[in-house]
């Protein structure tokens, strides 16, 4: 768990505020879900690894509870219990803290923050394309450079294994091995299930089918899985999605036909987004068409993405991207003597009404020491309230960056700043 100093918190809030603006532009309404949920709900379709790393405990009523390790289960529960009669689709946005008992390392914390967008009620490729476009827009709006998407479709591998009569829980175990890039172990596990040699050969070829030429990769993938009907349908679905998102934002992703993510609830398109400076994903998501039904709701197809707030901040720091515009004004008001404190408070209130952040020097410093402190803290301007100038309805306005000052009338102070 971590403390955030003001500068660190400012960077986090900048990312969150930008994500809210993206939500507004795409028509997503913000929701707030509890940090604590029942363990059974959170564990239902999570991976074994996440189940083992949840902060779980019994409450005073003897119920097994846990801190949320991700948002999707909570959102599915919310939709299933409170939103089934709402018009579809539902476009939902949320952000907040999540918890996993991971080994702390670069970009991985036990308490971490995410930004989540979910589109519920549509099984069309347009919905998947919209989630990809939202992610693309967020990266662009934050100024992150050279980001790239890795995209696949869980239906390709699941389609092959389902036709070979491999049980869903066994498929999930294989997906978790693939998610950790333990390909040889995954192939061995598939072979031990007694599948056909054709299946082994097809899966091996699918795992090697990847590249930046999306059309070629998917054309090759379709040929490779031609004997597996639902796998062919998955390739065609991914082709439609990528054509749509290519036309809207110009996305040209790295396509991996054998891409897998560890969470068990994925049923369709899956993706992650990266920058060259970091080996960990900044965010990821995909389609989950059966999860809401699992929690007692009516069948409701859904697709979503979670962006790592912490990781977006790290990426911006790696690329030297400032969290706030450097042109923002920040003013300190310095009274010359105790008898001018009330006037200093009055002027600071006037500045704030004009949407200019202002602080009164409350340390009783001399003007020179107050200006020295203002310089160290990064104030853009200082207003010095002196007795002689005040008699004429004026104050001294100092530009801290230019180290220049002049006398201005109070009625023009906000305009001058």
Summarize the structure.
This protein has 417 residues and is of the alpha+beta class.
Structure description:
By secondary structure, this protein is an alpha+beta fold. It folds into 2 domains: 6-318, BirA Bifunctional Protein, domain 2; 331-416, 3-Layer(aba) Sandwich (Rossmann fold), CATH 3.40.50.800. The chain is 44% helix and 21% strand. The chain is built from 17 helices and 17 strands. A 9-stranded mixed sheet has the order 1-5-6-12-11-10-7-9-8. A 5-stranded mixed sheet has the order 14-13-15-16-17, sandwiched between helices. A hairpin with an 8-residue loop joins strand 10 (269-274) and strand 11. Helix 6 (154-163) packs antiparallel against helix 9 (197-208), helix 7 runs antiparallel to helix 8 and helix 8 packs antiparallel against helix 9. The longest helix has 21 residues, at 6-26. The protein is elongated, with a radius of gyration of 27 Å. The model has no long low-confidence stretch (mean pLDDT 93).
What does the average pLDDT come to? 93
CATH topology name of the largest domain: BirA Bifunctional Protein, domain 2
Shape field: elongated
Overall CATH architecture of the largest domain: 2-Layer Sandwich
* Coarse structural class: alpha+beta
**Separate helix tally:** 17
Key structural traits:
417 residues; alpha+beta; BirA Bifunctional Protein, domain 2; Rossmann fold; 5-stranded mixed sheet; 17 helices; 17 strands; elongated
Task: Produce the secondary structure layout.
Blueprint: H1 6-26, E1 29-30, E2 36-38, H2 39-43, H3 48-53, E3 56-58, E4 64-67, H4 72-82, E5 90-99, E6 111-120, H5 125-142, E7 148-153, H6 154-163, H7 168-179, H8 183-191, H9 197-208, E8 210-211, H10 214-224, H11 229-249, E9 254-256, E10 269-274, E11 283-287, H12 291-294, E12 302-308, H13 309-318, E13 331-335, H14 341-353, E14 358-360, H15 367-377, E15 381-385, H16 387-391, E16 394-399, E17 404-409, H17 413-416
Parallel strand pairs: 1-5, 7-9, 13-14, 13-15
Antiparallel strand pairs: 2-4, 3-4, 5-6, 6-12, 7-10, 8-9, 10-11, 11-12, 15-16, 16-17
